[in-house]
Amino acid sequence: REKGLIRYDSYNGVVAGRRKIFTPRVLAYTAVLLLLVVANIALLAGRSEVEAVILRAPGKLYQKVDETHLSNLYTYQIVNKSNRDLKLELQLLDPPNGRIKLVGQPPTAPEGKMAEGAFFVELEKSQLQGRKNPIRIGVFSEGKKLDEVKTNFLAPGR
User: Are residues 38 and 73 in the same domain?
Assistant: First the structure.
């Protein structure tokens, strides 16, 4: 008996004894698979090390620090997606003259875990335009900016 008679093949393949491995269908599936692998690698390589969520504390309005300064209370959740522990630092990027006062210790995020806490943002009244003022807060580790969050600073209306 001839070997290879029982197989998935065309009539011409059986009669001629030729096996065609790279058919157009196989080439198309290979191209699609390669495209998916490249897309997956690009998405994994482009993801950030941390993901930060910063929200104004619910139910809290602005607080008067002194005659020239106001503060807002914020909560943060920072997820460390890297494979190393991170010592984090929060910096007020815009407006530049404000400052952040942490409640408790500076945040540290163990690898694969989340850091949570609260902080106050203090701004001068002269920097505020109206009731809602946009601010930007940066999340840094060892001097490198890992994430940036935009939120609002509440103040009394003019």
Answer: no
